[in-house]
Amino acid sequence: MRKAKRRKTHSAFPAIQYIMKRKLVFICLMGILVTLTVNAQPKVVAHRGYWDIEGSAQNSIRALIKADSIQCDACEFDVWLTADKKLVVNHDDHINSYVIETTSSDTILNQKLKNGEYLPSLDQFLDVAKRLTIDLVLEIKPHKNREHEKEAVKMILDLVKAKELETRTSYITFSRNAFDELVKQTNCPILYLNGVAPDVLKKIGGTGADYHINVFKKNPEWIKQLHDSGLEVNIWTVSEPEEIQWCIDHGADYITTNNPELVQKMIKDPL
User: pLDDT tens, 224-243?
Assistant: First the structure.
């Protein structure tokens, strides 16, 4: 009696495995995409701290604490050297008619800010920063005396190191003299404020560009060129919704702003 031929059957497992592999690849790709999207979000830098609120003032201790309290990524502030070689925090080169660079620290540190605080020394400012988690963007202001400015750079770097804040501090300046001294003396991030082309910036030793938004609007291709060169992009001072969105859309690494809460909201809830 002849045996009946057994019909060949095809297992469903290979098909199921193929489908599962494709799903796994898709999930992995989505995970990578989400990670890249998160990493691409710009960080928020409070310009002169978070000062545009009640009880605060530009470059005040209160502005630093407030910026940290709303979880800004960094606080930008400005530093000068007084006539008797004390480092102080203020934006303008003068306060209440006293020129900081040619006035003693006793006089400068006795001046009050708009919120009633005394103008802080850098030592005081950094002592408070140590107790917080916010990063620091320290601007070295252009001094009229170049030697005075060089001394300021060294003193600033020494103080930041002594406060153990090197890993949380980056430096910015308009002064080429101060910039060159920073390149010589530190491995911390150094961003130039003058709008030079990306190839020039890389050649002179900068780690990033910290340019006004109008510079980048005039040269939008610079953003990609900077990133392709491994350099960071910080755009200032961006506080209006349209400009904030422009920075987000064009891939800024940092947005320096007088309105940090609005920038945070627009990053969290993109259009």
Answer: 999 999 999 999 999 999 99
